[in-house]
Amino acid sequence: MKTLQFKNGDKLPIIGLGTWKSKPGEVFKAVLWAIESGYRHIDCAAIYDNEKEVGKALEEAMKSNIVRREELFITSKLWNSNHRLEDVQPALTQTLQDLRLDYLDLYLIHWPISFKPGVGFAQTREEFYTYSDVPLRQTWQGMEQCVKADLTRHIGVSNFNISKLKEIIGNAKITPEMNQIELHPFLPQNKLVDFCKKNNILVTAYSPLGSGDRAASIKKPDEPSLMEHPVIEQLASAKGASPAQILIAFSIHRDIAVIPKSVNKERIAQNLASIDISLDEEDMKSLSQIGTNYRFVDGSFFTGVKSPYVLKDLWETE
Ligand SMILES: NC(=O)c1ccc[n+]([C@@H]2O[C@H](COP(=O)([O-])OP(=O)(O)OC[C@H]3O[C@@H](n4cnc5c(N)ncnc54)[C@H](OP(=O)(O)O)[C@@H]3O)[C@@H](O)[C@H]2O)c1
């Protein structure tokens, strides 16, 4: 498996298994199938509400000697309600307990959005904190403490744009080593990826297949289809691959880690086999010229009249 390398030499397998929306009852099998078929990188988060079941699968895989802990790369994410300095380490401790692990390989700030403690999804203005209540720098200090306490090997962020990354870098003892962002041919994120590469920040592509299984409440009715786009379909048929494999290969070709979610045994294996799809410069050119510009996970569920946050503060203008 191709890997990306952290500054200290630790390696991140470029394909990982996504677990958002993987339901209890499904995710145990999905994680085991993934590990059995060769995945060594699993992407988790406290808010996915399935870490306990992921933990059972990790334990099962290690107990049955399919894999050793040091061969796995496990990522999880700090939820928005635990951004205060004193809440970061306890949140990670809970995640470790749920995942049945002593340490994580990578812990990320999930979103640059802050809720009051105990809030799952803020619905009223009172349930949010603003950046003056809880500056991102404060949350990052908590993340640094987690490294010092040996609870995680690496720390990073998710859904951070360039200005928010600069704010963290300018005040950090440990600079972020990862930015996990939505990325695919409808949202290639060239500017943000360039910035990350120049600043030694690795990138992970989320929703690489267009996140088709999101709840209707967070989907727009007229969303374009990534997997059915003619350029993707043509490339897939020319290479004897599936559209999903072309989309996964798109990130791999750019040295960007990619975490497709699946709970289906065949698709889990098929996604891993994307490592064998080679795209040449012509293929990459046609993918980069698709022209459709679309963000599937647009964060609008964190904004609006009842929120102190606005969308234009979240995203990079391409
Ligand atoms: N940091 C963040 O804020 C953030 C946001 C979104 C996602 N993520 C992470 O990124 C992961 C992936 O993103 P995502 O879950 O939004 O969506 P995704 O991986 O783009 O798409 C998942 C959908 O594609 C289907 N699928 C998987 N493999 C397929 C294949 N080979 N052929 C056809 N369909 C296939 C899945 O169905 P089946 O399961 O039935 O196969 C599911 O419906 C998440 O699970 C999560 O770990 C992070």
Description:
The protein has an eight-stranded parallel sheet. It has a two-stranded antiparallel ribbon with strand order 1-2. Strands 7-8 form a two-stranded antiparallel ribbon. The chain has a single domain, classed as Alpha-Beta Barrel (TIM Barrel). The model has no long low-confidence stretch (mean pLDDT 96). Helix 1 runs parallel beside helix 2 and helix 7 crosses helix 8. Helices cover 35% and strands 14% of the residues. The chain has 318 residues and is an alpha/beta fold. The structure holds NADP nicotinamide-adenine-dinucleotide phosphate (NAP). NADP nicotinamide-adenine-dinucleotide phosphate binds next to helix 9.
Task: Describe what is shown at a glance.
This protein has 318 residues and is of the alpha/beta class. The chain contains eleven helices and twelve strands.
Tell me the layout of helices and strands:
Elements: E1 3-5, E2 11-13, E3 17-18, H1 27-37, E4 41-43, H2 51-63, E5 73-78, H3 85-99, E6 104-109, E7 114-115, E8 128-129, H4 136-148, E9 152-158, H5 162-169, E10 178-182, H6 190-198, E11 202-206, H7 230-239, H8 243-253, E12 257-258, H9 265-272, H10 281-288, H11 311-314
Parallel strand pairs: 3-4, 4-5, 5-6, 6-9, 9-10, 10-11, 11-12
Antiparallel strand pairs: 1-2, 7-8
Helix pairs in contact: 1-2, 1-9, 2-3, 3-4, 7-8
Bound molecules: NADP nicotinamide-adenine-dinucleotide phosphate.
